[in-house]
Write a structure and sequence with these properties.
InterPro entries: Endo/exonu/phosph_ase_sf (IPR036691). This is Endonuclease/exonuclease/phosphatase domain-containing protein. It comes from Rhizopus delemar. By secondary structure, this protein is of the alpha+beta class. The protein folds into three domains: 165 residues, Deoxyribonuclease I, Chain A, CATH 3.60.10; 118 residues, no CATH class; 42 residues, no CATH class. It has a six-stranded mixed β-sheet with strand order 3-4-5-6-8-7. A two-stranded antiparallel ribbon has the order 1-2. It has a two-stranded antiparallel sheet with strand order 9-10. A hairpin with a 5-residue loop joins strand 11 and strand 12. Helix 5 packs antiparallel against helix 6. It is flat and about 105 Å long.
C-alpha cells in the first residue's frame, strides 16, 4: 500500500515492483534463503516479448557471500547461458568488475563477464561510480547481450533520504500507443518570476496584434497564441531544469571521486540540497498531472503519482476492438484500420430509399 505498486513479487530479501498497470509479474521461483528472485514480466497487450528478471541480494560479509555465490550455481546454472531477454539486478555487495581472491567465485565471475552486459560500466562517466553511501560500487543492473542494443540512457543518480543511489536504464520495446492528450497550462509556472515578466511582455505585445474580429474570435486567437508562448517557455524551463539536474549529478559524482579534498563534503551536501529542491518541484508537477487534489504537506511519493498518471492513461487507451469480420484485433495497425473502417461507415451516407421517401411524403397533411 505504501509503495502504491500495481504488481509486485517478494521474498524475505528481494523485491520486484511494477508501477505500470500495463505490466504483469509472474513469479517463477526463488531461492530457499530468499536472496534470489526470478520473475517473468509480460505486457497486457503483448507489445513486447516476455522478459525474465533475476533479483539478487548477496550477503554483506565475505565468507557468507562466497558461500552464496558458490551455491547460486545450482539455480542460475553458471555453465550455460540463459535463454535470452533477461535482466540481472540487485545489491551484489561487491564490485563485479574487480577480481575476487577465491577460487570459489571463479565460475560466478566467468558467468557474469561471459553472459551479461553492464550498460552502466560501459559508460565512462558512470564507471565504478559509488552506489552505496558514497563509498562503494555494489549495485548493478545487467542485461543479456541480445538486449544490449535496446538499452539507452544508463544513469546513476543520488536519491534523497537513501543510502543507495538509483541505478537505471531505459529499455525500448515496440511503439507508444497513446498520443499527447489534451494540453493544460501548468499553474506552478506563476511561481517563476521570469515567467511572470515574460507573460506580461507577451500580453502587452499581443494586444497590439490581435486581428480586428468579433470578441469571441479575438479571444480564440489570443488563446492559441498564448498556448504557443507557454509551451515554448515550458520547454525552455524543462531543458534548463534538466541541464541543472544533470550538472548537479555530475558535480556530485566528481565530488564523490575526490572526497579527500577540503570542503568536498560541504559542496556535496549543497549539491544534494539543490537536488532535493528539484525533486520537490518535480513531485508537485507530477501530483498536478495525476489529478491528485489533496496530499499531506511535504509528501512526494513520485511512484504513486506516476502510477496514477499511467492508470489514467490506461483507462483512456483501447487495447482491442472487434473487427467487421468478427474477430478481435490488438496490434496498433489493426486497431487503426478497424477504427478507420468504423468511422468511414458511420459517416458515409446510406442509399436513399425513394419508395420510403414517397410514402413519408404522402403522410404529410396538405
Amino acid at each position: 500500500m505504501i509503495l502504491q505498486a500495481s504488481a509486485s513479487n517478494w521474498t524475505h530479501h528481494c523485491g520486484l515492483i511494477s508501477f505500470n498497470p500495463s505490466l504483469s509479474l509472474l513469479p517463477l521461483w526463488s531461492s530457499i534463503d530468499g536472496r534470489i528472485l526470478a520473475t517473468t514480466v509480460t505486457h497486457n497487450s503483448n507489445l513486447f516479448e516476455p522478459l525474465t528478471i533475476y533479483v539478487i541480494y548477496a550477503p554483506a560479509t565475505s565468507t557468507a557471500r562466497l558461500n552464496f555465490l558458490c551455491e547460486s550455481n545450482q539455480l542460475l546454472q553458471f555453465h550455460q547461458a540463459p535463454e535470452g531477454r533477461c535482466i540481472l539486478m540487485g545489491d551484489f555487495n561487491h564490485n563485479i568488475h574487480k577480481s575476487i581472491r577465491s577460487d570459489r567465485a571463479v565460475e560466478w565471475q566467468y558467468w557474469i563477464h561471459r553472459i551479461w552486459h553492464d550498460p552502466i560500466h560501459s559508460d565512462q562517466e558512470y564507471r565504478n561510480m559509488p552506489t552505496f553511501r558514497n563509498i562503494s560500487t555494489i549495485d548493478f543492473l545487467l542485461v543479456t547481450t541480445d538486449l544490449k542494443y535496446n538499452v539507452s540512457r544508463p544513469d546513476v543518480k543520488y536519491v534523497p533520504h537513501c543510502d543507495h543511489s538509483a541505478v537505471s536504464i531505459n529499455l525500448f520495446f515496440g511503439t507508444q500507443r497513446s498520443g499527447p492528450g489534451i494540453w493544460r497550462c501548468n499553474p506552478y509556472l506563476v511561481q517563476d518570476l521570469s515567467f511572470r515578466k515574460e507573460l506580461k511582455s507577451f500580453c502587452d505585445a499581443a494586444s497590439r496584434y490581435i486581428p480586428d474580429l468579433d470578441a469571441p474570435s479575438q479571444w480564440d486567437h489570443f488563446k492559441i497564441a498564448l498556448k504557443g508562448f507557454i509551451q515554448a517557455f515550458s520547454h525552455k524551463l524543462h531543458a534548463k531544469h534538466r541541464r541543472k539536474e544533470d550538472y548537479l549529478q555530475r558535480q556530485g559524482r566528481k565530488l564523490l571521486r575526490h572526497q579527500q579534498f577540503e570542503h568536498a563534503a560541504d559542496a556535496l551536501s549543497h549539491a544534494e540540497a539543490q537536488l532535493d529542491q528539484m525533486a520537490d518541484f518535480s513531485a508537485s508537477t507530477l501530483a498536478l498531472r495525476s489529478g491528485l487534489r489533496w496530499r499531506e504537506h511535504g509528501e512526494r511519493s513520485n511512484s504513486y503519482f506516476y502510477k496514477t498518471i499511467k492508470t489514467r492513461t490506461q483507462k483512456q487507451t483501447i487495447h482491442e476492438l472487434l473487427s467487421s469480420e468478427g474477430y478481435l484485433v490488438r496490434s496498433p495497425n489493426q486497431l487503426n484500420n478497424c477504427a478507420k473502417q468504423f468511422y468511414e461507415q458511420l459517416y458515409s451516407p446510406d442509399p436513399i430509399d425513394y419508395e420510403a421517401l414517397e410514402e413519408l411524403l404522402t403522410q404529410i397533411p396538405p
